[in-house]
Amino acid sequence: MHETKFLAERFESNRSHLRAVAYRMLGSASEAEDAVQEAWLRLARADTSAVTNLGGWLTTVVARVCLDMLRARKARREDPMGPQVPEPVEDEEHSPEHERLLADSVGLALLVVLNTLTPAQRVAFVLHDMFDLPFEEIAPIVGRSPTAARQLASRARRRVQGAQPASDADLTRQREVVDAFLAAARGGDFDALLAVLDPDVVFRADPVAVRMGGQAEIRGAAGVAATFKGRAQAAKPALVDGEIGIAVAFGGHLRIVLVLTMTDGKIAEINAIADPERLGQFDVTALD
Predict the structure, then answer these.
(1) Torsion over CA of 204, 208, 214 and 218, rounded to 10 degrees?
(2) CATH number of the domain located at residue range(s) 2-105 in this protein
(3) Is the dihedral of CA 173, 178, 180, 183 positive or negative?
(4) Domain 117-165 belongs to what topology?
(5) Domain range annotation of the chain
(6) What does the pLDDT average to over 214-238?
(7) Under CATH, which number does the domain 168-286 receive?
(8) What pTM did the predictor assign?
(9) What is the pLDDT of residue 85?
(10) Which of 250, 257, 253, 249 has the alpha carbon at shortest distance from 274?
(11) DSSP for residue 127
């Protein structure tokens, strides 16, 4: 009982911060409160004896909950055709935190723009640009590498600042790289694979993908090219959370997603995701 009371007191000391994080991610006061309450339930069930920074642990939990809520919202297609107007925070208690939510630079106009981002972009941007979380901590929340998480936040930042997250020319060029990669893989053209891979490219596969015959990690263009040479017969270009990637489906069911990170027109990272639960969290659209 004493331990539960102690945890409750520490949780309450972080509640305003957690509500601020959740509100910026969700744009809904009621959903933000639901996310914070879920964080409390997870705290009550968890063994936090080894947690040295409870505030950081709770921020991560709330971010994961919000990401799940955003993805569920997108999966249900609840977002209207136009920009969604977020719920204002009802300042019933006139708390400084509520007043700050309405008065600071994170106003309703910005929340409307945030609603145009993919869930992963929104979470990366909010955590880094608004709450100074390092990308090393953001990466596992959004299921990406730190470099990929940085790119998510960068694209979101451009949208927030009034620019498109990626110009048509950028997307066209990325699609050309993916098409060239897949053609070279299917044709067994080792040199053509090397041409589209960054010399220091890193391939990573989750445990499910490893059980399907992959390696957990491969570093360097030669090793990655050798792995894909003569393969990728069922792979197709796709938009993965709004970014150019690759999807593999069998029998009409999505089996693997390759999340790509590109640098200077070459593929710098390939993350193979085959875990069904994680696959269900991605917004995947096959490209013709």
Answers:
(1) 20
(2) 1.10.1740
(3) negative
(4) Arc Repressor Mutant, subunit A (1.10.10)
(5) 2-105, 117-165, 168-286
(6) 93
(7) 3.10.450.50
(8) 0.61
(9) 44
(10) 257
(11) I
